[in-house]
Specification:
This protein is of the alpha+beta class. It has one domain (28-148). The chain has helices at 2-7, 33-43, 50-71, 85-95; strands spanning 76-79, 101-118, 125-142, 146-148. A hairpin with a 6-residue loop joins strand 2 (101-118) and strand 3 (125-142).
């Protein structure tokens, strides 16, 4: 953008800029099947028990999300249908006049990167896969940044 402005400076009378949204990105060390196998090995989880282990972790995450919503007296929305989650969170924040803090927690089944176990002759193996799984979204209202996920 800076180069564009410099190039056309003679016909530009002013500029306006703002932050639409901020995205924080990080590195997930468990994004490869091999790293996940190493993690499971460190935890003492056999590959044949991967699905049972994943379901137990998922249960912990779901229960935590529900407790957070209840503790803050905010809605926990379990979605069975596809809808615009951000729009729903905005509607809730306006209806309940939320200016700061937790707006709602929304859980939805979505296709996301994960792993699946495939049998092999000597030992099973994890492979990367994209299958429907429960995703949990926490929507917060920040006084400066507005609605945040």
């Amino acid at each position: 953008m800076k180069k564009f402005i410099e190039k056309h400076n003679d016909i530009i009378y002013g500029t306006i800029s703002c932050v639409d949204r901020i995205i924080f990105k990080g590195y997930n060390n468990l994004s490869s099947a091999q790293n996940m196998e190493n993690y499971l090995s460190e935890k003492g989880v056999l590959l044949k028990d991967f699905k049972k282990y994943a379901i137990s972790i998922s249960t912990v995450i779901k229960e935590h999300a529900l407790r957070v919503a209840q503790k803050n007296e905010r809605p926990y929305i379990k979605s069975g249908k596809k809808f615009n989650k951000e729009k729903r969170a905005k509607e809730i924040s306006q209806k309940d006049n939320i200016t700061q803090g937790l707006v709602c927690v929304i859980s939805a089944m979505e296709s996301s990167p994960t792993f699946k176990m495939i049998p092999r002759e000597k030992r099973p193996k994890l492979i990367n896969a994209s299958i429907p799984q429960l995703c949990v979204y926490y929507y917060y209202m920040d006084k400066v940044f507005g609605l945040c996920i």
